[in-house]
């Protein structure tokens, strides 16, 4: 598709709608499945340990799939892989609800993990191409669609869980997502979308080629730090509010909702903020501000200050992960997206156990301060990456490589 003529403005608008829908589909399906885990646990008569092993089917398959999806996108096209993986993920929500043992549950979740890992890399690769065509930093807005999809999926699941079994619930969710996939897929393929221009390693020195590898690596570590911070807050903030601060489950749930809501709001407005204030203020400054909010959230004994900390952390954190993926993709193509997505997902997986181990030794409030440390690292590396892009004579100029606007 590299020789395809640029899409017209109205075509770009439809492509953006299509990409937004695919981001939303992923969040919708994953959240819908997640809210039925307690019912599935009872259905398969799983202990907490055996359920945890079964759920590894999702994460393990997703990580392995992320590693190879970049190559698949290069061979067959990011848009084609996005559509195929959305269909697979839509179909994969049903088999786990038919199982009656932890073993068969884990085996069916392998399919779910393959679909989830593939769409994560593929749709972000589409987003990088779209950013280059639109010439606007829209990655944060697209990731906001994933958050909105998650909220819709979780909300619908909460309503349907009152009357429907997990199987009936997924038989409702599956056609919804397949119809959305067909509609979005038709729009996505109806207009040309050239691949974003990326570094030609044959045209730069060995040192310059390595420099691009360093940029992808640093951006991927930033993604890991941001995803780790989000995963830690999702998993541990409600427990911190309920056990350490002595509030009820409703207040703890409000804490989780605050994290999810501020991340969504921050990403929705992130496009405008990046255009107006630039990468340093929004990503680097946001990371440092978020670190302060994380310390306030972890160490304050006053609940309203904890919520202030959650709001500050969520807003500051919101644009770091999308910007890291955009940079990894614009520099390394689909393989760069695959590396950043894999490390990012690894950060989500690492957060619960590491916080738990630290909490056993030092208490949960002190353990949660590691979120602030990760955010400081993310901010520092984001600044280093920006300097790498602009401060070296071995790398092509920003005009020669079509980087997303947020790193210019």
From TrEMBL:
Q: Where are the transmembrane segments?
A: 12-31, 51-69, 110-132, 144-164, 170-191, 212-230, 250-270, 277-296, 302-325, 337-358, 364-385
Q: Which Pfam families match?
A: MFS_1 (PF07690)
Which residue numbers delimit the Major facilitator superfamily (MFS) profile domain?
Answer: 12-390
Q: Does the keyword Transcription regulation apply?
A: no
Statement: the UniProt record of this protein carries the keyword Signal:
no
* Stated name of the protein: MFS transporter
| Location of the protein in the cell | Cell membrane
The record's annotation in CDD domains points to: MFS_MosC_like
SUPFAM superfamilies, A to Z: MFS general substrate transporter (SSF103473)
Q: How does it sit in the membrane?
A: Multi-pass membrane protein
**Keyword annotations from UniProtKB, A to Z:** Membrane, Transmembrane, Transmembrane helix
């Amino acid at each position: 598709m590299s020789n395809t003529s640029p899409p017209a403005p109205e075509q770009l608008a439809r492509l953006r709608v299509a990409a937004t829908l695919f981001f939303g589909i992923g969040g919708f399906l994953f959240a819908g499945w997640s809210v039925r885990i307690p019912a599935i646990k009872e259905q398969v008569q799983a202990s907490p340990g055996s359920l945890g092993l079964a759920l590894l089917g999702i994460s393990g398959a997703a990580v392995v799939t992320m590693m190879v999806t970049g190559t698949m996108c290069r061979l067959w096209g990011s848009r084609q892989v996005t559509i195929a993986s959305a269909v697979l993920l839509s179909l994969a929500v049903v088999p786990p609800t038919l199982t009656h043992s932890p073993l068969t549950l884990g085996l069916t979740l392998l399919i779910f993990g393959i679909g989830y890992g593939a769409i994560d890399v593929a749709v972000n690769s589409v987003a990088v191409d779209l950013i280059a065509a639109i010439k606007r930093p829209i990655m944060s807005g697209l990731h906001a669609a994933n958050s909105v999809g998650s909220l819709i999926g979780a909300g619908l699941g909460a309503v349907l869980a009152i009357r429907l079994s997990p199987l009936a619930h997924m038989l409702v969710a599956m056609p919804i997502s397949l119809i959305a996939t067909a509609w979005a897929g038709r729009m996505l393929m109806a207009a040309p979308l050239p691949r974003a221009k990326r570094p030609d390693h044959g045209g730069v020195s060995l040192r310059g080629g390595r420099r691009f590898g360093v940029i992808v690596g640093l951006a991927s570590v930033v993604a890991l730090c941001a995803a780790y911070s989000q995963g830690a807050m999702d998993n541990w903030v409600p427990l911190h509010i309920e056990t350490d601060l002595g509030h009820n489950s409703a207040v703890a749930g409000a804490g989780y909702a605050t994290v999810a809501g501020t991340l969504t709001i921050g990403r929705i407005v992130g496009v405008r903020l990046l255009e107006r204030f630039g990468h340093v203020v929004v990503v680097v400054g946001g990371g440092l501000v978020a670190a302060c909010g994380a310390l306030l959230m972890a160490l304050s004994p006053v609940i309203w200050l904890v919520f202030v900390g959650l709001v500050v952390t969520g807003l500051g954190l919101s644009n770091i992960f999308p910007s890291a993926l955009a940079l990894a993709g614009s520099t390394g193509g689909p393989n760069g997206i695959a590396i950043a997505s894999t490390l990012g997902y690894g950060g989500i997986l690492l957060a619960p156990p590491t916080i738990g181990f630290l909490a056993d030794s030092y208490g949960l409030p002190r353990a949660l301060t590691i979120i602030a440390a990760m955010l400081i690292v993310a901010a520092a590396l984001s600044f280093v990456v920006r300097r790498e892009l602009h401060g070296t004579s071995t790398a092509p100029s920003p005009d020669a490589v079509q980087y997303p606007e947020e790193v210019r």
